[in-house]
Structure formats: C-alpha cells, structure tokens
UniProtKB/TrEMBL annotation, chain A:
Residues 66-259 form the ABC transmembrane type-1 domain. The chain crosses the membrane at residues 12-31, 66-89, 101-123, 135-154, 191-213, 240-259. Keywords: Cell membrane, Membrane, Sugar transport, Transmembrane, Transmembrane helix, Transport. It is a multi-pass membrane protein. The keyword Cell inner membrane does not apply. It comes from the Bacteria. This is Multiple sugar transport system permease protein. The keyword Membrane applies. InterPro entries: BP-dep_ABC_trans_perm, MetI-like, MetI-like_sf. It comes from Nonomuraea wenchangensis. GO terms for biological process: transmembrane transport.
From TrEMBL, chain B:
The keyword DNA-binding does not apply. GO terms for cellular component: plasma membrane. Belongs to the binding-protein-dependent transport system permease family. It comes from Nonomuraea wenchangensis. Keywords: Cell membrane, Membrane, Sugar transport, Transmembrane, Transmembrane helix, Transport. SUPFAM superfamilies: MetI-like. This is Multiple sugar transport system permease protein. The keyword Cell membrane applies. It is found in: Cell membrane. InterPro entries: MetI-like (IPR000515), MetI-like_sf (IPR035906). It is a multi-pass membrane protein. GO terms for biological process: transmembrane transport. It comes from the Bacteria.
TrEMBL record, chain C:
Keywords: ATP-binding, Cell membrane, Membrane, Nucleotide-binding, Sugar transport, Translocase, Transport. SUPFAM superfamilies: MOP-like, P-loop containing nucleoside triphosphate hydrolases. CDD domains: ABC_Carb_Solutes_like (cd03259). This is Multiple sugar transport system ATP-binding protein. One of its GO terms (molecular function) is ATP hydrolysis activity. The keyword Mitochondrion does not apply.
C-alpha cells in the first residue's frame, strides 16, 4: 500500500463519483416527479401518488400520441426490414452489375443526407405529394432515410453467413423462393431483429421529421406532443410532462434491456442514428 | 476439430459462362429476381433520399418562398442565395456557433469523456462498471424530446435542481450561457457512443503489449502513449469523424433553446429550420442546406477513405 | 443409380482462370470415386459442376445417360454432402434429414417415418430431436449422410467429407463411409486433398493438377505405377525417390551409382538419354553391406515410423530414402546401401512414365 496507490484509488473513486453524479442528476427528475403530487422543477422526495398517471390517461392527446409513435415506428421497422432484407440478400449473393458502386453510394448517401440537410426539400416534397399529415407518407420518408444503412448492415451480416446452406437446399431441389423462406430467413433472423430494433428506436425518438410533416395534433407522435407540452400554453404542466415523459421513455429502456440480454450488448458502429 | 488443409477453392459467380439459362449464385436467384429484390428499396431511397438531395441543389438556386408571389412562380436567381448567405452575418454567426458546438461537445466533450470512462473501467467487471455504463447509455437512448426537457428542468433559473445544488438560485443558464448549456447537454447525451467504441478498441489492445511495457517499467501515461494510442489511432479517427458528422447535423439544440436567446445558440441545423420553415425563405434555406450537404460530403468521403484503407 | 460421364467439361472463371480444361471422365454405376489433388487443382470446382452449383463453360455432364448440363442442381437427381455439412442450424435432426422430402412435397408423417428409419440405420435414434449445434463433428457428419440417403438420389457427391473431423475420428469415419457406400451401392464421387484418404476409400480415383486429370486408375495402379512425376510425387505418405539419371548402355547411372533398368522400361531406352528414376522408399531393400545394383551412401537421418524406419541416405549429395523394417535400422553416419526392387522401380522421360 504505497501512498501512490492510495492516491490512485482516491482519484479513481472521486472520478467515478463525479461521473455518476453528472449522468444521474439530470435523470433523477424523470423518476421522481411523476410520483410527486405537485412536482416542481426541483428534484424532491416523491410522495408516491398515482394521480399523475390518471391525468395522463385523461389527456386527449397523450395516449393517442404513444399509439401514433408505435404505428410510425413499427410501420417503418416492418418496411425497412422487409425491403432491406430483400435488397441485402440479392446484393450479397448475386453479382449485379455496378454492385460495389451502388453499395458505396448507399453508404455515402446515408451519412450525408441527414434530416437537417434535407428538411427543406422533404417538407416541399410532402406538400407537393399531399403527404403532409399523412402517417403513411411519414413512414415512407423515414424508411427512405433508414434503408441505406440498414441494407449495408444486413449485407455485412449476410456476407458472413456461409453459402453452403443455400447450396445444399438447392441441390435437394428447393426453388429460390423456398430457399429464402426455409433457409435464409431463419438463418439471418438475429440480423433482422437487430435492424427492426434499430429502426424502432430511431423512429420512436425522432422529433424533427414528424414535427415538420405532421401538423394535426391527433396524428402527432409522443416526441412532438412532449415538445408541445413544454413550449405551448405558458406555464408547462409539470405533472403531465414528467409522467408522460416517463411513459414515453420506458419502452425504449425495456427494448434496450431486452436486446442486451438476448444478444449480449454487441457493439454496432453507429447503430443509433 | 481439424481444419481443412486446403483453402476453399475459388467459388464465384460466373456471368460469362452461363449456359442452359440458370445462374450460379448460391440460391439460384438469377439476376432478374435479384433485381426485383433490390428494386423496391432503391425506389424508396431514390424518391425520399436522393431526389430531395438533388432538389435541394435546385431550390438553392431559386427565390422560392413558402408563401406569397414567389411561392407560385419561383424565379431562378443563380447564386444569389449563396451570396446572400455569405454576406449575412447571421449565417456566419451560426457557422461559428456550430463550430463551437462540434468542437466543444463532440471533439472535446464526448471524445475525452468517452475515452476516460472506457480507460478507467477497462479492467473492471461487475456492478460498478455496469452501473456507470448503463447510465451513460441511458442518456443516449432516451428520446431527445424527453432528455431535452429534463435539462430544461435541471437548468431552470428559479426552481432548477442544478442551481439548488450549487446554491446559486436565479442563475439563468439557458439565457446567459446558451452555448455552454447545449455543449454540456450534448456531451452528456452523446458520450455513450465514444465510450463503447473506445471500450471495444481498448479490448483489442493485446494484453501482452501492455504487459511488456509494464515489465519495461512504463508508467500509466507512458503505456497510454506508447502502446494504447498507436493501437487505437484508427478508432480515434473513425470516432472523431462520425460524431462530428452527427453533432454537426444534430437538431436537438432546438429542443433546448430553440436557437435563442437572440440567435445566440442558433447552430446551422436550427438556422435552416428558422429561415426556411419559420420565415418561409425556402430558396435561401436550401442554399444553406446545400452548404451543409457539401460539408457532410467532405467528412463522409474522408471517413470512407479511412474505412477502405483499413481493409 | 447411375453412371456419371463428363465430356470435354470446361470451366472458365471470369477473368480467364481455367479451372477445368476439357475433362473427359466416366464413372460407372455404383463406383466409389475419388477426386484427388492439391488445393486449387479444380477438384472442388469439378464436383460443384457435376452438382450444377457451377455452370459449365463448355462440354457436357451426363448422369445416367441423361445430359444434365443445362439442368438446375435440383433437377439432376444428385445429393451432396458439403465440407461443413451445411446442416440447417434452425432445424432438429429429424427435420434436417426430412428436408429433401419436404421439397418433394412428401406428407409430414411419411417424412418423419423415413427420417426415423434412415436415422436409425446410422445410429442417430437418440439424437433425432437435437439441433446440429448440440452434436459432435462425427454425429453431424452422420446426419448429413442420413440426409443425402433420404433423397434416394442417383449419385452422391461428397466435398472433403472427412476434413472437419479430428484425426482419430477420421480413421473411424473412413471405414464407416466405405462400408456404407458398399451397402448402398450408390455411385459416389468424393473430393479430397489427402492421398491416404483417396487410396483407402476409393474404388478408382482421378489425380488432378491445374484443371487437368493427370491419372485415372485404381488406388493400386496409381500407387504402383504413377504415369507421371506429378502423380509420383503426390501419392504416398513418404514421397517417392525421384532421381535424375542417365542411360549408360544397358544400365542406369543414378546419383553416381549403377542400377539396373527396371522391368517396365526394358528395351525402351536409348543410350545416353536423360531420365528420372523413381522408386518408393517402401520398395527398397536396405543393407549394411555393398550390394549388387545398390545405391550406396552415408546415413544422414533415421526417422521412426512406428513399425518401420525411414532412413535418409546422402548419396554423393543426392538424398535417397528407404524404409527399413523394425530392428534392423542403422545408426546415423553408417554406410548404407539401398537396392531398388526392379519390378517396382520406374523410369520417367520428360515427366512421363516409360512403359
């Protein structure tokens, strides 16, 4: 036990304490305020009331907006998974002309055309195509944005799956579509699940696109409703905000726990955005 | 398990030698079906990603507006919008703020904090590590609308928890120091990515290299400099490019300060939104979007080059 | 069951690599046939072209006298065992074995019965509900075999069937495979890079090099009379002695020693000709005493092969090896003499066997 060692230990735990404080303090309000009768901005010991949840239930837009979030994210995830899986499989197994250039272009596109850079034309496009206030329109736009990265990730996954499974089925006489159904889909299921979770998480938290393209409050997802709750109508309703924010956050946390338990938390570069 | 001594022989598709009208990919899909598999995705990407990007280039050259005469019949104005932007002090202000935002929150905040956490926890297992990592990741995965409001509550001038903790009630963080607020906010929000990337990178530094450095009597700092950094240099560059790109395009400062007060936190992402969709100057907004696209392109090409050279 | 015939079969990869160069080959019905060669020789490509997984660039493939060159793999009535067995990880053993029947639209009950029957034949009764990931390498191989048996195909194709097993299991599986093929009587082609495997299992074999077949024959023929120096060097656990020599009248001068002209080459050589003299270490008689027609030198190394020893002689700076039975091995540094068996020694002119 040299003094140097002791100092090192003290330094280590001080650092950990500071880090824990930095990352915990902003979150505390989210777990205390919903259970407090009359919450203020300050974090206080909650008195464990369920009244705030009652208020959320009665709010005309709160629960419907969660449903809207679910529709948008599941709809987008389904489209992304189906389309990306088909495209990634074909690109992984068949030498289509210009394949490498296409993949490079996809990767480039997905990283440069962001919501920020494309909000003006997307807004205009939606106006022209009458897709403002259309959830389907928003789903298509979100799908277009997520597809390149999804195709890229899935193709990587499929490339690492041996071809001999498909060849084996093929020698037994299975047709290409049978092979896809019997062999490929079950084999790449973990990859499909990853892409589905990634898409859902992305859309669930997305604020900019629905904020731009959905003006009808009955169609807006939770992200937009949360923002509306604290910017409009003078004094923010903290009971609503905290409780609704908690309800809106819980699914993401559950999904994260599920994924990290099921697949172990593997590191996917840039999986979030 | 004994491994095959002979490496697998070249097995590959054969576009030239096709006979009998069948293809030799693994599932016998054939080019036609493969094309049909790829087409739906490409169509959506073309319509909702590529077309908007091209459209923004065109829009930037017109005087298109959301309302009024120019909305009905937009005129081609050439590079006027770009010249306007260059002459506009608000644009330069936003660019400068964006630079501060990217340097402060991504390059300094997230990288330094992310690496520090990954480094101090590198040899640890157990609940402490899981707790720290879990909280950092939580900040990353929660919806941006929620965490933004959490910070609004934390930083509130009168009732905020931070002022109560620091004992400085009435200190207006968001009004007096809006840039500092969003930089700290974004550091908090985005550190998880860097932490995980460096965690993975540090896991790949061969322990024998660290051990031989330790046997040679290297101090902690010397081990970092001589063994760890050379090993993870590629990861650092990847990390820097990606998080710079993301932070540059991040719209969440809008949720915290809406660009205010007086445009003092109006980064480019928020600037575009304000001029194009709030003031309705679509043409000018498109010109600024074009500039953002070009900057993205430079960073992305740099990043892809890096990926290629690694392979 | 059917014979397999290849006529002028050619495979050219994009980029111009010729993997198969106008191959002709007939494999009669019921034969256990080995394709042997070093990696990259085209043996796997040949097998995959027979299966239809690679499209031929020229020539034709006939299975049971039917031209299947343009037929999809599934229409050729062959079954294949892949090097990694390609058992579907998401199906249990029963479903894996029954998969070919599922494709043929056999009803579920019949499928299960057939899978159980074939599985029982290969001793898989206890494993029918397991997933491939829960099986050992040897068990996986048997499931893969059961799966091809369930197809009742005309011909079986095995790609390196033993390479995924560890050494001890490999010997066991070798015997098992050979016995199974005997019993089933199905024409079977297998690919291997291991000459011992080909010699042990095959009825006949083809030795391939760079897209060409260099020799076709029974294992005994290929072992005793390799028709060229490539095959001579490739076959045999201890490599054949291939020594440069000269014809001197009615004897040969090899490594500075005088040896007799082998029986096979008698009367076919002309004086002064340059040749390569080939004799397997197993076909040398070793003695400590100078012997008539022997190749004499200093013992450089003695390697224990178990029941025998491999003695390496340094003969005027040329390496000559002989196998010596247990108990009579020399010591390093001794003088030794190796006498080739004249009925087993071979002479090669320009790489080809003189006969």
């Amino acid at each position: 036990m040299t003094p140097r060692f002791v100092l090192g230990r003290i330094g280590f735990y001080t650092l950990i304490a500071v880090l824990l404080a930095f990352f915990t303090i902003p979150l505390l309000w989210l777990v205390t305020a919903p259970f407090t009768s009359d919450p203020t901005y300050e974090v206080r010991m909650p008195d464990f009331t369920w009244e705030n949840f009652q208020a959320v239930l009665e709010h005309p837009y709160a629960l419907p907006s969660l449903w809207n979030s679910l529709v948008l994210s599941v709809g987008t995830a389904l489209l992304v998974v189906v389309m990306a899986a088909l495209a990634a499989y074909a690109l992984s197994r068949v030498r289509l002309p210009g394949r490498d250039a296409l993949l490079y272009a996809l990767l480039l596109l997905s990283s440069i055309i962001t919501g920020t850079a494309a909000m003006v034309p997307l807004f205009q496009l939606a106006v022209e195509l009458n897709l403002i206030d259309s959830q389907l329109g928003l789903i298509l736009i979100l799908t277009g944005g997520l597809l390149p990265a999804a195709i890229f990730m899935l193709k990587d996954f499929m490339d690492s799956t041996p071809k001999s499974y498909e060849e084996s089925a093929r020698v037994f006489g299975a047709s290409p579509l049978q092979i896809v159904r019997h062999v490929v889909v079950p084999l790449v299921r973990p990859g499909l699940a990853t892409i589905a979770v990634w898409s859902i998480a992305n859309v669930w938290g997305n604020f900019l696109m629905p904020y731009l393209l959905l003006s009808d409050v009955e169609k807006q997802p939770a992200a937009v409703i949360t923002y509306t709750l604290y910017t409009e109508g003078g004094q923010a309703n903290l009971r609503m905000l905290s409780t609704f924010g908690l309800l809106y956050s819980v699914p993401v946390v559950l999904m994260y726990l599920f994924v990290s338990k099921k697949y172990g938390f593997r590191f996917h570069g840039g999986i979030k955005r | 398990m004994a491994q095959a001594i002979s490496p697998p022989e070249v097995i590959d598709g054969d576009p030239s030698g096709r006979r009998g009208g069948y293809s030799s990919d693994a599932a016998g899909l054939g080019r036609l079906r493969a094309g049909a598999f790829v087409a739906p995705a490409l169509l959506l990407i073309a319509a909702f990603l590529v077309f908007p990007a091209l459209w923004v280039l065109y829009l930037g050259l017109t005087n298109y507006r959301l309302t009024g005469a120019a909305a009905a019949e937009p005129q081609f104005v050439g590079l006027d919008n770009f010249l306007d932007a260059v002459a506009n002090p608000t644009f330069w202000n936003s660019t400068w703020l964006t630079l501060q935002f990217v340097l402060g929150s991504a390059v300094i905040g997230q990288v330094v904090l992310g690496f520090t956490i990954a480094w101090v926890l590198r040899d640890r297992r157990g609940p402490l590590k899981r707790l720290v990592e879990g909280l950092v990741i939580l900040a990353w995965i929660l919806p941006s609308a929620v965490v933004s409001f959490l910070w609004v509550a934390l930083l509130d001038r009168d009732g905020g928890t931070l002022n109560a903790l620091l004992g400085i009630p009435g200190f207006a963080w968001l009004l007096d120091h809006p840039m500092l607020s969003i930089i700290i906010f974004n550091t908090w929000r985005g550190t998880a990515f860097s932490m995980m990337l460096y965690g993975a990178a540090l896991g790949n530094v061969p322990p024998s290299h660290l051990e031989s450095a330790r046997l040679a009597g290297a101090s902690g700092w010397q081990q970092l400099r001589d063994v760890v950094f050379p090993h993870i240099r590629g990861h650092i560059l990847t990390n820097l490019l990606l998080i710079s790109l993301w932070t540059f395009n991040d719209f969440s400062p809008f949720l915290l300060t809406a660009g205010g007060p007086d445009g003092r936190s109006e980064v480019l992402a928020v600037h575009v939104y304000k001029v194009a969709l709030q003031s309705g100057e679509l043409g000018y907004g498109a010109a600024v979007s074009t500039i953002i696209l070009l900057i993205n392109l430079v960073v992305a090409v740099f990043y892809l080059r890096l990926l290629r050279s690694k392979k | 069951m059917a014979a397999i015939e290849l006529r002028g079969l050619t495979k050219v990869y994009p980029g111009g690599v010729k993997a198969l160069d106008a191959l002709d080959l007939v494999i009669p019905d019921g034969e256990f046939f080995a394709l042997l060669g070093p990696s990259g020789c085209g043996k796997t490509t040949l097998l995959r072209t027979i299966a239809g997984l690679e499209a031929a660039s020229g020539g034709s493939v006939l299975i049971g006298e039917r031209d299947v060159t343009g037929t999809q793999p599934g229409g050729r009535d062959v079954a294949m065992v892949f090097q990694d067995y390609a058992l579907f990880p998401h199906m249990d053993v029963t479903d894996n074995i029954a998969y070919p029947l599922r494709i043929k639209k056999v009803d579920k009950a019949t499928r299960r019965d057939k899978a159980a029957e074939v599985g029982a034949r290969l001793g898989l009764e206890q494993l029918m509900d397991r997933r491939p990931g829960q099986l050992s390498g040897g068990q996986q191989q048997r499931v893969a075999l059961a799966r091809v048996m369930a197809t009742q195909a005309q011909a079986f194709l095995f790609d390196e069937p033993l390479s995924n097993l560890d050494a001890r299991l490999r010997l066991e599986a070798r015997t098992f495979l050979k016995k199974l093929q005997r019993e089933l009587g199905v024409t079977t082609v297998f690919v291997t890079h291991d000459q011992a495997e080909a010699l042990a299992m095959a009825d006949r074999m083809a030795v391939m090099e760079a897209g060409h077949i260099r020799q076709i024959g029974t294992p005994a023929e290929v072992f005793r009379r390799p028709v060229n120096t490539f095959v001579a060097g490739f076959i045999g656990s201890t490599p054949m002695n291939l020594l440069d020599g000269l014809v001197r009248g009615d004897t040969l001068e090899v490594a500075g020693c005088k040896v007799a002209v082998p029986a096979l080459a008698e009367g076919r050589l002309s004086d002064g000709e340059k040749i390569v003299y080939g004799v397997r270490p197993e076909y040398m008689t070793y003695s400590d005493e100078p012997a008539e027609g022997g190749i004499g030198g200093k013992v450089a190394i003695v390697e224990n092969l178990g029941a025998s020893h491999l003695v390496t002689l340094d003969v005027n700076d040329v390496i000559v090896q002989a196998v010596v039975p247990e108990g009579s091995e020399p010591a390093v540094g001794d003088d030794g003499y190796a006498v080739p068996r004249s009925d087993r020694a071979l002479v090669y002119r320009d790489g080809e066997l003189v006969s």
